[in-house]
C-alpha cells in the first residue's frame, strides 16, 4: 500500500471543498460533484467530503486522486458510505478495485475531471497517457466500486 497523500491545506483548496460540499448538500452539483459521508475509522463520527462519482456502464466508482486520503482510509475500514446531493442520499457498500482494473477507470475520470484533479496525482498523466503511464500510478490511487446496499 502506498502512502501517497496530497492533503488539501491551502486555504483556497479548503474553501473550494467546503463550497462544493455545501452546494451539493443543497442540491446543486458542480461538475457532477456529490457529498460522500463515511464513518470515521477512529472517531466513529460521520465525515463528509465532496467527491466526483464516475459512472461507467451503470456501475459507480469513487477515485481518490489525492491518494490515501482520510476518506479513502475511512471507506476502506467502514466498507459502506452514503453519496448524496440535496435531499437524495444513496447508501453503498464499497469494494476496492484491483490495480489492473484501475487503468480503464482512470482514463475517463481524467477526461472528465483532469482539469480539477490532475495536479494531485503522483505523476503527470492525462486521459491521453499510455496504459503503462497510468499503470505506474495505480498503486497510489485508491479506487472503489460502489454497490447499492
What features would you describe in this structure?
A seven-stranded antiparallel beta sheet has the order 2-1-5-6-7-4-3, with helices on both faces. The chain has a single domain (about 10-149), classed as Electron Transport, Fmn-binding Protein, Chain A (Pnp Oxidase, Chain A). The protein has four helices and seven strands, in the order αββββαββααβ. A hairpin with a 6-residue loop joins strand 1 and strand 2. The longest helix has 19 residues, at about 100-115. With about 150 residues, the chain is of the alpha+beta class. It has helices at about 10-25, 70-80, 100-115, 130-135, and strands at about 35-40, 45-50, 55, 60-65, 80-85, 90-95, 145-149. About 30% of the residues are buried. The radius of gyration is 14 Å and the shape is globular. Helix content is about 35%, strand content about 30%.
Residues in helix, %: 25-40%
CATH class: Mainly Beta
Average pLDDT over all residues: 87
The helix/strand series, from N terminus to C terminus, equals HEEEEHEEHHE
Please give the number of β-strands.
7
CATH fold-level label: Pnp Oxidase, Chain A
Provide the descriptors you would attach to this structure in a database record.
single chain, 149 residues, alpha+beta, Pnp Oxidase, Chain A, 7-stranded antiparallel β-sheet, 4 helices, 7 strands, 28% strand
Question: How are the elements arranged and paired?
Answer:
Blueprint: H1 11-25, E1 34-39, E2 46-51, E3 54-56, E4 59-63, H2 70-78, E5 80-85, E6 88-96, H3 99-117, H4 131-137, E7 143-148
Antiparallel strand pairs: 1-2, 1-5, 3-4, 4-7, 5-6, 6-7
